[in-house]
Protein backbone atom coordinates (compact mmCIF):
# COMPACT_ATOMS: atom_id res chain seq x y z
CA UNK A 1 0.00 0.00 0.00
CA UNK A 2 2.81 2.42 0.90
CA UNK A 3 4.57 1.73 -2.40
CA UNK A 4 1.33 2.27 -4.28
CA UNK A 5 0.71 5.63 -2.55
CA UNK A 6 4.29 6.74 -3.22
CA UNK A 7 3.98 5.75 -6.88
CA UNK A 8 0.76 7.73 -7.27
CA UNK A 9 2.30 10.79 -5.61
CA UNK A 10 5.29 10.61 -7.96
CA UNK A 11 2.95 10.39 -10.96
CA UNK A 12 1.38 13.61 -9.73
CA UNK A 13 4.53 15.53 -10.71
CA UNK A 14 4.25 15.11 -14.53
CA UNK A 15 0.51 15.75 -14.31
CA UNK A 16 1.06 19.10 -12.59
CA UNK A 17 3.86 19.99 -15.00
CA UNK A 18 1.61 19.25 -17.98
CA UNK A 19 -1.28 21.23 -16.55
CA UNK A 20 0.91 24.21 -15.68
CA UNK A 21 2.57 24.21 -19.12
CA UNK A 22 -0.79 24.15 -20.88
CA UNK A 23 -2.21 26.98 -18.78
CA UNK A 24 1.02 29.00 -19.03
CA UNK A 25 0.87 28.67 -22.82
CA UNK A 26 -2.75 29.77 -23.01
CA UNK A 27 -2.17 32.76 -20.72
CA UNK A 28 0.85 33.79 -22.81
CA UNK A 29 -1.30 34.07 -25.93
CA UNK A 30 -4.13 36.00 -24.30
CA UNK A 31 -4.18 39.76 -24.98
CA UNK A 32 -3.08 42.23 -22.34
CA UNK A 33 0.12 43.48 -20.72
CA UNK A 34 0.66 42.57 -17.05
CA UNK A 35 3.02 45.52 -16.60
CA UNK A 36 0.40 47.96 -17.82
CA UNK A 37 -2.18 46.23 -15.62
CA UNK A 38 -0.02 46.82 -12.55
CA UNK A 39 0.91 50.44 -13.34
CA UNK A 40 -2.42 51.51 -14.81
CA UNK A 41 -3.57 52.60 -18.24
CA UNK A 42 -2.13 56.13 -17.87
CA UNK A 43 1.40 54.98 -16.98
CA UNK A 44 4.19 56.25 -19.26
CA UNK A 45 5.63 53.83 -21.79
CA UNK A 46 9.10 54.06 -20.23
CA UNK A 47 7.78 52.94 -16.85
CA UNK A 48 5.90 50.04 -18.44
CA UNK A 49 9.01 48.96 -20.38
CA UNK A 50 11.15 49.12 -17.24
CA UNK A 51 8.66 47.02 -15.26
CA UNK A 52 8.44 44.46 -18.07
CA UNK A 53 12.21 44.11 -17.96
CA UNK A 54 12.19 43.80 -14.18
CA UNK A 55 9.48 41.11 -14.25
CA UNK A 56 11.27 39.17 -16.99
CA UNK A 57 8.38 39.52 -19.42
CA UNK A 58 10.78 40.31 -22.27
CA UNK A 59 12.44 36.89 -21.94
CA UNK A 60 11.47 34.08 -24.27
CA UNK A 61 8.56 31.80 -23.45
CA UNK A 62 10.56 28.78 -22.27
CA UNK A 63 12.78 30.83 -20.00
CA UNK A 64 9.73 32.39 -18.35
CA UNK A 65 8.15 28.96 -17.87
CA UNK A 66 11.39 27.51 -16.45
CA UNK A 67 11.57 30.40 -13.99
CA UNK A 68 7.97 29.75 -12.95
CA UNK A 69 8.63 26.03 -12.40
CA UNK A 70 11.83 26.73 -10.48
CA UNK A 71 10.06 29.07 -8.07
CA UNK A 72 6.99 26.84 -7.91
CA UNK A 73 9.08 23.91 -6.64
CA UNK A 74 9.93 26.02 -3.60
CA UNK A 75 6.28 26.99 -3.14
CA UNK A 76 6.75 30.51 -4.50
CA UNK A 77 4.13 31.16 -7.18
CA UNK A 78 4.67 34.90 -7.10
CA UNK A 79 2.38 37.76 -6.27
CA UNK A 80 -0.92 38.75 -7.80
CA UNK A 81 -0.64 41.46 -10.46
CA UNK A 82 -3.82 43.12 -9.20
CA UNK A 83 -3.66 42.87 -5.40
CA UNK A 84 0.10 42.52 -4.89
CA UNK A 85 -0.44 39.72 -2.34
CA UNK A 86 1.06 36.24 -2.52
CA UNK A 87 -1.21 34.14 -4.71
CA UNK A 88 -1.20 31.07 -2.49
CA UNK A 89 -2.26 33.23 0.43
CA UNK A 90 -5.34 34.30 -1.52
CA UNK A 91 -6.04 30.74 -2.63
CA UNK A 92 -5.79 29.32 0.90
CA UNK A 93 -8.04 32.11 2.15
CA UNK A 94 -10.76 31.18 -0.38
CA UNK A 95 -10.34 27.41 -0.55
CA UNK A 96 -12.40 26.69 2.61
CA UNK A 97 -15.40 28.34 0.89
CA UNK A 98 -14.94 26.17 -2.20
CA UNK A 99 -14.49 23.07 -0.01
CA UNK A 100 -17.69 23.80 1.95
CA UNK A 101 -19.63 24.21 -1.28
CA UNK A 102 -18.21 21.00 -2.77
CA UNK A 103 -18.85 18.97 0.40
CA UNK A 104 -22.48 20.13 0.70
CA UNK A 105 -22.97 19.57 -3.03
CA UNK A 106 -21.67 16.01 -2.93
CA UNK A 107 -23.74 15.25 0.21
CA UNK A 108 -26.87 16.39 -1.65
CA UNK A 109 -25.83 14.31 -4.65
CA UNK A 110 -25.27 11.16 -2.55
CA UNK A 111 -28.48 11.56 -0.54
CA UNK A 112 -30.44 11.81 -3.78
CA UNK A 113 -28.46 9.63 -6.15
CA UNK A 114 -27.89 6.42 -4.17
CA UNK A 115 -31.46 5.92 -2.81
CA UNK A 116 -33.05 6.78 -6.16
CA UNK A 117 -30.62 4.48 -7.97
CA UNK A 118 -31.40 1.59 -5.60
CA UNK A 119 -35.15 2.06 -5.94
CA UNK A 120 -34.89 2.28 -9.73
CA UNK A 121 -32.88 -0.95 -9.87
CA UNK A 122 -35.23 -2.88 -7.59
CA UNK A 123 -38.26 -1.63 -9.54
CA UNK A 124 -36.81 -1.90 -13.03
CA UNK A 125 -39.04 -0.82 -15.93
CA UNK A 126 -41.63 0.61 -13.56
CA UNK A 127 -43.03 4.13 -13.86
CA UNK A 128 -40.77 5.22 -11.00
CA UNK A 129 -37.73 3.80 -12.79
CA UNK A 130 -38.57 5.55 -16.06
CA UNK A 131 -39.28 8.84 -14.30
CA UNK A 132 -36.04 8.78 -12.32
CA UNK A 133 -34.00 8.00 -15.44
CA UNK A 134 -35.63 10.87 -17.35
CA UNK A 135 -34.89 13.24 -14.47
CA UNK A 136 -31.32 11.92 -14.30
CA UNK A 137 -30.90 12.59 -18.01
CA UNK A 138 -32.17 16.14 -17.52
CA UNK A 139 -29.82 16.61 -14.57
CA UNK A 140 -26.81 15.54 -16.61
CA UNK A 141 -27.84 17.70 -19.57
CA UNK A 142 -28.54 20.98 -17.74
CA UNK A 143 -25.60 23.42 -17.66
CA UNK A 144 -24.76 24.65 -14.16
CA UNK A 145 -24.95 28.31 -15.06
CA UNK A 146 -28.45 27.93 -16.57
CA UNK A 147 -29.76 25.96 -13.59
CA UNK A 148 -28.19 28.51 -11.24
CA UNK A 149 -29.93 31.40 -12.99
CA UNK A 150 -33.27 29.55 -12.93
CA UNK A 151 -32.95 28.87 -9.20
CA UNK A 152 -32.08 32.52 -8.55
CA UNK A 153 -35.08 33.70 -10.57
CA UNK A 154 -37.38 31.28 -8.73
CA UNK A 155 -36.26 31.33 -5.10
CA UNK A 156 -34.43 34.66 -4.80
CA UNK A 157 -36.21 37.00 -7.21
CA UNK A 158 -39.65 35.36 -7.39
CA UNK A 159 -40.25 33.93 -3.92
CA UNK A 160 -37.61 35.93 -2.07
CA UNK A 161 -36.91 33.12 0.38
CA UNK A 162 -33.21 32.60 -0.35
CA UNK A 163 -30.32 34.98 -1.10
CA UNK A 164 -29.21 35.30 -4.71
CA UNK A 165 -25.47 35.38 -4.00
CA UNK A 166 -22.60 35.90 -1.61
CA UNK A 167 -21.72 33.95 1.51
CA UNK A 168 -23.84 35.22 4.39
CA UNK A 169 -24.82 32.18 6.42
CA UNK A 170 -26.36 28.77 5.87
CA UNK A 171 -29.15 30.01 3.59
CA UNK A 172 -26.64 31.30 1.06
CA UNK A 173 -25.20 27.79 0.62
CA UNK A 174 -28.48 26.14 -0.41
CA UNK A 175 -28.87 27.37 -4.00
CA UNK A 176 -25.24 26.98 -5.14
CA UNK A 177 -25.00 23.56 -3.46
CA UNK A 178 -28.17 22.38 -5.22
CA UNK A 179 -26.83 23.74 -8.50
CA UNK A 180 -23.59 21.80 -8.06
CA UNK A 181 -25.20 18.67 -6.64
CA UNK A 182 -27.88 18.22 -9.30
CA UNK A 183 -25.58 17.07 -12.08
CA UNK A 184 -23.58 14.87 -9.71
CA UNK A 185 -26.79 13.34 -8.31
CA UNK A 186 -27.91 12.40 -11.82
CA UNK A 187 -24.61 10.65 -12.57
CA UNK A 188 -24.59 8.84 -9.22
CA UNK A 189 -28.19 7.73 -9.77
CA UNK A 190 -27.40 6.18 -13.15
CA UNK A 191 -24.26 4.45 -11.87
CA UNK A 192 -25.99 3.12 -8.73
CA UNK A 193 -28.85 1.73 -10.79
CA UNK A 194 -26.50 0.08 -13.29
CA UNK A 195 -24.30 -1.42 -10.58
CA UNK A 196 -27.27 -2.68 -8.56
CA UNK A 197 -28.86 -4.30 -11.62
CA UNK A 198 -25.63 -6.17 -12.29
CA UNK A 199 -25.30 -7.37 -8.69
CA UNK A 200 -28.89 -8.45 -8.04
CA UNK A 201 -28.66 -10.84 -11.00
CA UNK A 202 -25.77 -12.75 -9.44
CA UNK A 203 -26.17 -16.30 -8.15
CA UNK A 204 -25.45 -15.45 -4.51
CA UNK A 205 -28.36 -12.99 -4.50
CA UNK A 206 -30.70 -15.70 -5.77
CA UNK A 207 -29.30 -18.03 -3.11
CA UNK A 208 -29.96 -15.46 -0.38
CA UNK A 209 -33.54 -15.11 -1.57
CA UNK A 210 -33.94 -18.89 -1.73
CA UNK A 211 -32.87 -19.12 1.91
CA UNK A 212 -35.89 -17.03 2.83
CA UNK A 213 -34.15 -13.71 3.56
CA UNK A 214 -36.38 -10.68 3.23
CA UNK A 215 -35.95 -8.53 0.13
CA UNK A 216 -34.91 -5.51 2.18
CA UNK A 217 -32.15 -7.50 3.91
CA UNK A 218 -30.99 -9.00 0.61
CA UNK A 219 -30.68 -5.55 -0.98
CA UNK A 220 -29.12 -3.72 1.95
CA UNK A 221 -26.80 -6.41 3.32
CA UNK A 222 -25.77 -8.39 0.25
CA UNK A 223 -26.39 -6.41 -2.92
CA UNK A 224 -25.61 -2.83 -1.92
CA UNK A 225 -22.19 -3.49 -0.40
CA UNK A 226 -20.99 -5.29 -3.51
CA UNK A 227 -22.44 -2.60 -5.76
CA UNK A 228 -20.61 0.21 -3.93
CA UNK A 229 -17.24 -0.07 -5.70
CA UNK A 230 -18.20 1.74 -8.94
CA UNK A 231 -20.45 4.09 -6.95
CA UNK A 232 -17.53 5.10 -4.71
CA UNK A 233 -15.51 5.77 -7.86
CA UNK A 234 -18.17 8.07 -9.24
CA UNK A 235 -18.72 9.85 -5.91
CA UNK A 236 -14.99 10.47 -5.55
CA UNK A 237 -14.64 11.72 -9.11
CA UNK A 238 -17.67 13.96 -8.72
CA UNK A 239 -16.25 15.45 -5.54
CA UNK A 240 -13.05 16.21 -7.43
CA UNK A 241 -15.05 17.74 -10.28
CA UNK A 242 -17.02 19.85 -7.82
CA UNK A 243 -13.80 21.19 -6.31
CA UNK A 244 -12.44 22.21 -9.69
CA UNK A 245 -15.70 22.61 -11.59
CA UNK A 246 -17.38 25.10 -9.29
CA UNK A 247 -16.01 27.96 -11.40
CA UNK A 248 -19.26 28.81 -13.17
CA UNK A 249 -21.41 28.20 -10.10
CA UNK A 250 -19.24 30.43 -7.91
CA UNK A 251 -19.36 33.13 -10.58
CA UNK A 252 -23.14 32.98 -10.93
CA UNK A 253 -23.68 33.18 -7.16
CA UNK A 254 -20.77 35.56 -6.43
CA UNK A 255 -19.40 32.88 -4.13
CA UNK A 256 -16.01 33.86 -2.66
CA UNK A 257 -14.18 30.70 -3.65
CA UNK A 258 -11.15 29.66 -5.68
CA UNK A 259 -13.23 29.29 -8.84
CA UNK A 260 -14.42 32.87 -8.77
CA UNK A 261 -10.91 34.06 -7.94
CA UNK A 262 -9.64 32.22 -11.01
CA UNK A 263 -12.29 33.74 -13.30
CA UNK A 264 -11.45 37.23 -12.07
CA UNK A 265 -7.74 36.55 -12.57
CA UNK A 266 -8.33 35.33 -16.15
CA UNK A 267 -10.25 38.51 -16.98
CA UNK A 268 -7.37 40.64 -15.68
CA UNK A 269 -4.62 38.39 -17.09
CA UNK A 270 -3.29 37.82 -13.61
CA UNK A 271 -1.08 34.92 -14.73
CA UNK A 272 0.45 33.99 -11.33
CA UNK A 273 -2.99 33.70 -9.72
CA UNK A 274 -4.42 31.64 -12.60
CA UNK A 275 -1.45 29.26 -12.65
CA UNK A 276 -1.40 28.78 -8.89
CA UNK A 277 -5.17 28.20 -8.75
CA UNK A 278 -5.14 25.64 -11.58
CA UNK A 279 -2.14 23.76 -10.15
CA UNK A 280 -3.72 23.77 -6.70
CA UNK A 281 -7.07 22.45 -7.95
CA UNK A 282 -5.36 19.82 -10.13
CA UNK A 283 -3.38 18.62 -7.11
CA UNK A 284 -6.53 18.53 -4.98
CA UNK A 285 -8.36 16.51 -7.65
CA UNK A 286 -5.48 14.01 -7.86
CA UNK A 287 -5.34 13.61 -4.07
CA UNK A 288 -9.10 12.97 -3.97
CA UNK A 289 -8.69 10.23 -6.60
CA UNK A 290 -5.90 8.67 -4.54
CA UNK A 291 -8.06 8.68 -1.40
CA UNK A 292 -10.86 7.00 -3.36
CA UNK A 293 -8.50 4.25 -4.49
CA UNK A 294 -7.35 3.72 -0.90
CA UNK A 295 -10.96 3.58 0.24
CA UNK A 296 -11.52 0.64 -2.13
CA UNK A 297 -9.33 -1.51 0.10
CA UNK A 298 -11.67 -0.99 3.05
CA UNK A 299 -14.76 -1.79 0.99
CA UNK A 300 -13.43 -4.83 -0.87
CA UNK A 301 -10.60 -6.93 0.66
CA UNK A 302 -9.88 -8.43 -2.78
CA UNK A 303 -8.65 -5.05 -3.97
CA UNK A 304 -6.50 -4.60 -0.87
CA UNK A 305 -4.63 -7.80 -1.73
CA UNK A 306 -3.62 -6.29 -5.08
CA UNK A 307 -1.68 -3.53 -3.33
CA UNK A 308 0.61 -6.02 -1.56
Automatic annotation (TrEMBL):
Q: How does it sit in the membrane?
A: Multi-pass membrane protein
Q: Which GO terms describe its cellular component?
A: plasma membrane
Write out the annotated subcellular location: Cell membrane
> What keywords appear on the UniProt entry?
Cell membrane, Membrane, Transmembrane, Transmembrane helix, Transport
Which biological process terms from the Gene Ontology are attached to this UniProt entry? Answer: transmembrane transport
Q: Which InterPro entries match?
A: BPD_transp_1_N, MetI-like, MetI-like_sf
Q: What family is it from? A: Belongs to the binding-protein-dependent transport system permease family.
Q: Which PANTHER family match?
A: DIPEPTIDE TRANSPORT SYSTEM PERMEASE PROTEIN DPPB-RELATED (PTHR43163:SF6)
Q: What is this protein called?
A: Peptide ABC transporter permease
Question: Which lineage is the organism of this entry classified under, starting from the top rank?
Answer: Bacteria, Fusobacteriati, Fusobacteriota, Fusobacteriia, Fusobacteriales
